[in-house]
Amino acid sequence: MIDVQVPQLGESVTEGTISRWLVKEGDFVAKDQSIAEIATDKADSELPAPSAGRIVRLLAKEGDIVPVHTVICQIDETVTANEAAPHTARPNVAAKPIAAPSTRRAALEQGVDLRDVRGSGEHGRITRDDVIRAANEVPAAPVAPRAISRGGDAAQVQQLLNQGGGFVPPIPGVGFGSFKLPAYREKAGDKVVPFTRRRRITADHMVYSKLVSPHVVTVAECDLNAASKLREANKDRYKKEGMSLTMLAFVTLAVARALRENPTMNARVLSDSFVIHKDVNIGVAVDSPDGLVVPVVRRADELGLRGIVRSVDDLASRARSGKITIDDLSGATFSVTNPGIKGNLFGGAIINQPNVGILRMGEIKKRVVVVEGPNKEDLMAIHPVMYMALSYDHRVVDGVAANSFLWRVREILEQADFEV
Known about the structure:
27% of the residues lie in helices and 26% in strands. It has helices at 81-84, 101-110, 128-137, 154-162, 197-212, 225-240, 247-261, 305-320, 399-415; strands spanning 2-5, 15-21, 28-29, 34-39, 44-48, 53-58, 65-67, 71-76, 147-148, 175-176, 179-180, 184-185, 215-223, 267-269, 274-276, 282-284, 286-288, 291-293, 296-297, 334-337, 357-372, 378-393. The chain is globular. The protein starts with a strand and ends in a 5-residue tail after the last helix.
């Protein structure tokens, strides 16, 4: 008998949700056949059968959250396909809804049965938009006005408030000390949106980061005139090769070089020490059907501009198509975030734990700047300018180190010191 466990789905992943079983008890499976879809806060993945045999027991239900290394299935590897055939009712594959794992997870979260959804994708594939549309078409049951408290168990809340002798954190949905939030009373037309698992983990991550890391934000103004000219001169050539030469790629490479020269920013805090990482792995925030994800460009300081462009293009494309893997999202030592075409002047991003810094790009706007003329006189010119905001963890990063790092990023970008 073989015990099938939830695998380690990434270095920071401790549990997963059984989105869907692809088999049932009594089925015969081939080696490496997908038997379940498992969702985490980072990505969705399919669990392959470690051996051929008969599914004896399924030890977890769809929707269960199970820690890694938990046994969720048992396979009798002594049963051959011929022995299993008389007893196994093969599933009707032709009637199985066509949908990606991320779409199936969305259906699970929204309580939508994919068999009732008409797919709008190629060959009838069900998309995430189809799931959301189906969820919104289901009429909500009338709910009587009620007070909703999101503060958790009352006894636990009281225990926290009565601890004394130290710091008692604010309690979400309840308040802090003598301040109490008024209870929410539902009104006609209001829409209460439950947190998805990913949204809950993201929210908890952000609160944790703000609580444990004393954030300091410093901003630099960067003249992108030279870098923009370099991009304009080469973007069509890159496009013919199927790549997008974006300013994000220039910034990512500049950050990678600056991290190698300022290693304190490429670190992680432990309980009573900190680690300076050998590798420079930059997480680049991109959008996906399930929200913002941060895939990682590994050893970015060893890549040229072309290598950065290729890596960012590949990661962004797979994120948009829902094909990003957990390994793609693990191991960042620093992060860069880009507000996109509808960005704003600048903003202080929350540090992506366990990193000690994150750089947020601002919008690129043409502004009047003062430049030095041929005779060293001051002249006014119109150049594309961007504000970059560095958020750093003041537990281990001092202002001198942070400012030196940001100054170097700006210098590399303004000098356009890149080989294209």
